[in-house]
Amino acid sequence: MSERHHETVRQQFRDDWPDCWERAAATLDWDREWETVLDESDAPTYHWFEGGRLNACTNCLDRHVAAGEGDSVALEWIGERGETRTLMYTELLAAVESVAAALRDRGVEEDDVVTAYTPNHPALVTTMLACARLGALHSVVPVEFDGEKLATRLQRADSTVLLTCDGFYSGGETVSTTQPVATALDEVDQAVDVIVVNRLDEGGAALAAFEHDNGGVYDYQTLRERFADATVDPVSRAGDDPLLLLFTSGTTGRPKGIVHRTGGYLAYVDWTSREVFDLDRTDTVWTAASVAWIVAYTVYGPLSVGATTVLYEGALDTPEPDRPWEIVDDHEVTVFYTATERVESFRDHGERYPARHDLSTLDVAGMVGEPVDPATWRWYDEHVGDDDCHVLDTWWQSETGGVMISIRPGVEPPKPGRAGPPLPGIEAVAVDDDGTTVNTDEIGSLLLQRPWPGMLLTLLDGSERYEREYWASYSEPEADEWVYAPEDAVRIDGDDYVEILGRADDVIELGERQLVATRVESAVTALDGVEAAAVVERRSTAKNCLVVFVVPTADGVTAKQRTETDRELHARVADRVAETAGTAARPGHVHSLSSLPETASGKLERHVLSEAANTDELDDWSGIDGSIRHLGFN
Ligand code: AMP
Q1: What number does the ligand 1 atom closest to the CA of 487 have?
Q2: Omega of the bond leading into 44 within 30 degrees of 0 (cis)
Q3: What strands, in cross-sheet order, belong to the sheet with 530-538?
Q4: Which has more pLDDT, 610 or 102?
Q5: I need a labelling partner for 217 at 20 to 30 A (CA). Which of 42, 132, 416, 618 fits?
Q6: How far is the CA of 315 from the centre of ligand 1 (A)?
Q7: Share in percent of the chain as helix, strand, coil (round to 5)
Q8: Concatenated DSSP letters for 545-588?
Q9: How, if at all, do strands 36-39 and 47-50 pair?
Q10: Contact status, residue 488 vs residue 481, Cβ threshold 8 Å
Q11: For residue 461, what pLDDT is reported?
């Protein structure tokens, strides 16, 4: 039985904090060992593994090749149209060295930022690791983003190299990236060299489409061949030197450029891969999500551990909703991880799809991103996990680097609807608005009371914004002790299991009562004729009330019939809310929308709806659609 199964691990972490984190760093190869595990003198900027030096790419590739594992599969890529490409550790290392040499040739040096705007593709992973080898940072921008968003991210990172694909396949469609890239290149001030992966097979035409006035255009494959024999020595980085840059979706104002450090981040991601996902090098991990969102468990975690990572390009229901299960079956996936909203859509499609395939290789099936209702958890457990696989509801944020709250397979039992206890070394409490710890089972805001190695190093905007965004100093538990405030609403039970209710603004104070918006929304969405729903509060001097936005199921009725149907639907919605949350919560208004504003990773942008519903001049609800569109596309 491995060490993780000892019940004393949690206690050891408490007794031996912060030195307990040495066990995370110890699984990595360091060029020079650290002298201090944690330096808190600069709090809330924390320095981890000070004095240590390492290279993240070496840890993901060279060390496995040196250990005789070069012939193990590092990366299995699957395109939406069924194409596959398998790269062994030796092959991925060779590809990384050639791309590193090409980037160096383009002038990329330590601490520069290379921006990538591609779907999940081997060239993306190769380029990320090539950056890590050179000590440069990568910034992966979701390929669904438009040219404006790409421009902002290129500009703010001052990137002079952009990796892109001429296009990609998603949901059976061919999507070209030419236009957004042209818009972005037109807008940024700096010269940008563009490296283009020829994904759509359009030969030279693809390349020509990326010609621009301020920088060169290079074909990815040609560069790979030109530098095929290059060797590039990994650059030794200090533990706190930045590894990567990640812009959050920017739902609330200016996107945050999160900077993760090399040593602490990699140690934490490696450690959580083992501890939470039970990974070792015999595993095949498929994190069915965009690399731009889940970097830790698509790239760094699986490769640092020496496992095989599966990367899938396209939509999970194309050509049919059994696509994920076909991939699990064909590639003998042992660890499957995806967004909670994806699991909800698997459930909507029905169990006949997973039932078509042999999923017995799965040991772990995880999810992240949204509150998980117990029925969805049970469906996942029964129909994907087949009752003998560990189902994990993991809580973390881009800022935390890796999972913070989850049960550990075989260590803590699951409680559907609750993520689990904080991991060893992580201390979490729920507090009220004054920072006072609330009672067991009461709703409060989550606070993390201690720093951890995977925490962000800083924000691109500098330490002032970093401090303002994330850190609070309350009189409890001790004066001038910094605590990290993720701004999520939670309820913690007597066993320390954390139920995540949503973002702090998902909790609505209606008179004396606290309502959890996501709960009301699930009840409304369960009604016939409702595709999606969102609940916000409209504040007024007279009396606050709920406003419910619904997306009616498309049913082909005419506009006139639609109005009448809507009226009936709205009455049913109001009744359902009153039944679920009490008559005092009966909505003041129900409004139909054709879709809800969402982030690139599919999360509801509640603040957009809330802002629209609280506009002063809102006396005619018909104007709200335009106002939501305006706010949503800021
Ligand atoms: P992101 O940084 O985009 O990954 O979003 C992080 C946010 O997603 C968290 O602050 C939570 O609001 C939400 N989230 C992540 N994991 C969970 C979970 N297991 N249950 C509920 N919400 C989650």
Answers
A1: 10
A2: yes
A3: 530-538, 545-552, 589-592
A4: 102
A5: 132
A6: 21
A7: 35, 25, 40
A8: EEEEEEEEPP----HHHHHHHHHHHHHHHHHHHHHHH-GGG--S
A9: antiparallel
A10: no
A11: 87
Answer yes or no: is pLDDT of 95 > 90.
Answer: yes
User: Which residue is closest in CA terms to ligand 1's atom 1?
Assistant: 397
* C-alpha 158 – ligand 1 centre gap (Å): 29
Residue 626: predicted pLDDT: 66
Cis peptide bond prior to 453, omega within 30° of 0: no
Q: What is the pLDDT of residues 304-358, one digit of tens each?
A: 999 999 999 999 999 999 999 999 999 999 999 999 999 999 999 999 999 999 9
Which residue from 246, 294, 298, 368 has its CB within 8 A of the most atoms of ligand 1, so it is best to mutate? 368
| pLDDT for position 475 | 46
Q: Compute the distance between CA of residue 43 and CA of residue 455 in angstroms, rounded to an integer.
A: 13
Q: Whose CA is nearest to atom 8 of ligand 1?
A: 369
**Confidence band, pLDDT 50/70/90 cuts, at residue 249:** low
Spacing, Cα 304 to ligand 1 middle (Å): 24
> Concatenated DSSP letters for 423-447?
PTT--EEEE-TTSPBPPTT-EEEEE
Cβ atoms of 439 and 429 within 8 Å: the answer is no
Beta strands, E only, 289-410: 308-312, 335-339, 364-368, 390-394
Mean pLDDT, range 113-141, rounded to an integer: 98
Q: How many helices (H) and strands (E) does the chain have?
A: 22, 32
**125 C-alpha vs ligand 1 centroid, how far in Å?**
24
Q: Please list every protein residue whose CB sits less than 6 Å from any atom of ligand 1.
A: 248, 368-372, 393-398, 419, 486, 488, 500, 503, 601
Q: What are the structural domains of the chain? A: 3-466 (3.40.50.12780), 511-632 (3.30.300.30)
Which residues, in sequence order, are CB contacts of 82 under 8 Å at separation 6+? none
Q: How confident is the model at residue 1 (pLDDT cuts 50, 70, 90)?
A: very low
Residue closest via CA to ligand 1's atom 12 equals 503
Length of the chain: 634
If one residue of 291, 367, 391, 395 were mutated to test the ligand 1 pocket, choosing by the most ligand atoms within 8 A of its CB, it would be 395
Alpha carbon of 170 to ligand 1 centroid (Å): 25
Tokens linked to 326: 């076909």
Based on C-alpha coordinates, what's the Rg of the chain? 24
Q: What is the pLDDT of residues 476-520, one digit of tens each?
A: 445 467 899 998 999 999 999 999 998 887 888 887 778 888 888
Q: Is 250 exposed, middle or buried (0-12, 13-18, 19+ CB in 10 A)?
A: middle
- pLDDT value for 476: 47
Greater model confidence, 517 or 103: 103
Whether the Cβ atoms of residue 119 and residue 109 lie closer than 8 Å to each other? no
**DSSP assignments along 127-156, one per residue:** HHHHHHHHT-EEEEPPTTS-HHHHHHHHHH
pLDDT at 75 over 90: yes
d(CA 548, CA 591): 6
Looking at every residue in the chain, the average pLDDT score rounds to 91
Q: Is the peptide bond before 477 cis (omega within 30 degrees of 0)?
A: yes
Residues 301 and 270 sit within 8 Å (Cβ to Cβ): yes
Residue 508, pLDDT score:
84
Residue 268 near residue 401 (C-beta atoms within 8 A)? yes
